Amino acid sequence: MRLTRLYTRDGDDGETRLADGTRVAKDSPRVVAYGAVDELNSVLGVALTHDLDARVAGAVQRIQNELFDLGGDLATPRESDPGFEVPRLDDASVTHLEPLIDELNSATGPLENFILPGGAPGAATLQVARTVCRRAERHAVTLAREADTGVAVAYLNRLSDLLFAMARYENQCKGESEPLWEPGANR
Fold first, then answer.
1. I need a labelling partner for 127 at 20 to 30 A (CA). Which of 31, 119, 166, 171 fits?
2. Alpha-carbon distance 95 to 97, whole Å?
3. Residues 13-70: tens digit of each pLDDT
4. Closest Cα partner for 12 from 21, 20, 1, 23?
5. What is the DSSP letter of 7?
């Protein structure tokens, strides 16, 4: 793909084109869903600037590519023929996240208490990514009520679990204690 111009003026009226050329409102459930996935991808890019552990950084880079595929998947209605092959996530995209969740969770040990986002900068940023991922998941659920979204909801659900495990692991790697929730501490 080659972009020669960054602006088209086509969106000045509050509409945009999906990958198959269909024009829709910029606040349609489909655009909101793939926009949230794009935001998540950007937050993961910020996380990578924080010198993440190599195991986590490698996984984040793979996930960024998958999120780009997911955005394209969500931007292309399944019933349409865009005239090109659309990379679509599948069940294997979901299940491949699970062994890493298990590995990182095993390394950090069981959760003894609720933890607060924080600690090392990379861990804190991964927690922000987790919350953005949950929002993207909610938007994908909304879209799934009216259109086939494939495995988008399941992928984002599993990914948010992985981002939580990554944040805990990152704190451990950086020697940071997990900030624990202290109920009623400010009373």
1. 31
2. 5
3. 787 777 877 898 888 999 999 999 999 999 999 999 999 999 999 999 999 999 999 9
4. 23
5. -
Question: Which of 104, 108, 162, 169 lies closest to 134, judged by CA?
Answer: 162
Six-digit token pair at 139? Answer: 């938007």
CB 55 within 8 A of CB 152: no
Tell me the domain boundaries of the chain.
Answer: 17-173
Q: Where are the alpha helices (DSSP H) in the chain?
A: 29-48, 54-74, 91-95, 98-108, 121-144, 152-173
**Token pair for 127:** 């927690």
Residue 42 CB neighbours (<10 A): 14
Q: Which two tokens mark 78?
A: 């399944």
